[in-house]
Design brief:
By secondary structure, the protein is of the alpha/beta class. The chain folds into three domains: 84 residues, Arc Repressor Mutant, subunit A; 97 residues, Periplasmic binding protein-like II (D-Maltodextrin-Binding Protein, domain 2); 101 residues, Periplasmic binding protein-like II (D-Maltodextrin-Binding Protein, domain 2), CATH 3.40.190.10. Helix content is 43%, strand content 23%. The chain is built from eleven helices and twelve strands. The strands form two sheets. Strands 3, 4, 5, 6, 7, 8, 9, 10, 11 and 12 form a ten-stranded mixed beta sheet that branches. A two-stranded antiparallel sheet has the order 1-2. Strand 1 and strand 2 form a beta hairpin.
Length: 297
């Protein structure tokens, strides 16, 4: 006969309180049902574990030996189950994500604040990375999900588009091109351009757009961070090209921000996850907050 968790819990309860009646009440079962569970357990181990006495019930020598091992095991099990329930209810957990720096500085902070308003116990560990690194971290399961541009990865990864933005030219209002509502790519090809370094997905978009128009551009300055490009544009070192969603644009309200046209340069920013894995509850909470932040934008 099989040994069940119910039978072990029934034995532990009778052994702890020395009473079938009280144990049955605490387990919310009838006393005959409790007796059946105890008998099945004794049949499973092949030993009598409890003796009925005028005062209730006492463990046999075998019962005392089982109780010494069983009590800590049941406590550990109860703790593990409670911990899992906390995870499921989003009362505990850590979200690990890899994200483009431009999104980490703009969309992400508001989404984290929104999530913590509902689930203050959840933690977030953010890894800023370029697109290729984001994909690799999701693929290797270093993070729960990533946010980056669309590389059409296929395989074990799936993408959910989050938003679409465009590349802007950021320049002093005194510049001749600032008088235009949008700046044709052809006119930017001969300007001093301030661009992100070549491993950036934004830089690749810009380079590809110029190449398609028949131009190979050499930037006047390169930088790792968009804030650096904005600072250079403020001092007149050239025209910065950054995405419209970048929070760094607010650093220099005195600069003119003009969309690039003919052709425009756009990107789709997506949520990347493994298609063969479900997200942990904490990660699901942040994804919901991201969607809600975008819906309310």
């Amino acid at each position: 006969m099989s040994i069940t968790l119910k039978g072990l819990r029934a034995f532990a309860m009778v052994q702890r309180y020395g009473s079938f009646t009280r144990a049955a009440a605490l387990l919310n079962i009838t006393q005959p049902a409790l007796t059946v569970q105890i008998r099945q357990l004794e049949a499973g181990v092949g030993l009598r574990l409890l003796e009925r006495t005028p005062r209730g019930a006492e463990p046999t020598a075998a019962g005392r030996e089982l109780a010494r091992s069983l009590e800590p095991l049941l406590q550990d099990l109860d703790h593990a189950i409670a911990s899992l329930r906390d995870l499921a209810a989003r009362r505990r957990g850590l979200v690990r994500l890899a994200v483009l720096p431009s999104v980490a500085a703009s969309l992400l902070p508001g989404a984290i604040a929104r999530m913590r308003a509902s689930h203050p116990e959840l933690g977030v560990r953010v890894h800023e990375a370029v697109t290729g690194q984001v994909y690799e971290m999701v693929r290797s399961e270093e993070v729960d999900f990533g946010i980056a541009t669309d590389l059409r990865p296929g395989g074990a990864l799936s993408l959910e588009p989050l938003f679409r933005d465009q590349i802007l030219a950021l320049l002093p209002p005194s510049h001749a091109l600032a008088r235009m509502q949008s700046i044709p790519l052809q006119k930017l090809a001969t300007e001093r351009l301030l661009l992100l370094e070549s491993d950036s997905s934004i830089r690749r978009l810009v380079d590809d757009a110029f190449a398609s128009a028949g131009h190979i551009v050499a930037p006047a300055q390169e930088a790792v961070h968009m804030g650096t490009l904005v600072g250079m544009a403020r001092t007149g070192l050239g025209i910065a090209m950054i995405p419209s969603s970048a929070a760094e644009i607010t650093m220099a309200p005195e600069l003119a921000a003009r969309p690039v046209s003919r052709p425009g340069i756009h990107r789709v920013v997506s949520l990347i996850r493994r298609s063969d894995r479900s997200l942990p509850p904490a990660a699901e909470a942040l994804v919901e907050a991201l969607r809600n932040s975008l819906a309310g934008a």
